[in-house]
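seq:
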Amino acid sequence: NPALMLALKLNADLFSLVKINSYKNGTISKDNYLHTVLPKPNPFQTWEQFLWDYKFWKDLGTAYVYNTYPLLKDSYLYCLNPANFKFTEQQDKDFAKIVNSKQELDLILNQTIQYIDDKGNEYDYNLRDIKPFFNLSNGVSGNWFVGLSIIDSILPHLKLANQNLKSQYINTEFSAKFVA
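struct:
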């Protein structure tokens, strides 16, 4: 839906302009702090691009941020496409559980998640290295690592709007046969 995409883009555009400051005792101690801690999130993106991706994916349901530290000496952050995660049936069950001990939590966080990018490259990530951020609470999806989006609630209306647009084009084409 073009209107939805425009709204998502505008929201991400505005969010990408944010400056993240450091605060001490309620006042700014360092302006634009994020750039001083890590000049770039990864070798391929600026903070503005990373924040754009983060907001876009979060608005669609879940933004997954992967941190390469401690696997690499340097810490790189990447926003991963949520559609490319492949949870097993067992993981779907495990990720719905209520954790009652550190041992149970470690069993979940030490699991490996398969990720297949859009070019078919396969990666195995440790769940401990991925931080999910949710558009809506993760407590309503039945999986602590998958969020829902407010867009899901308006999806039927978006589909209806698309059908209306298509039918207007068909009616215009059809009526043109009789108006000439």
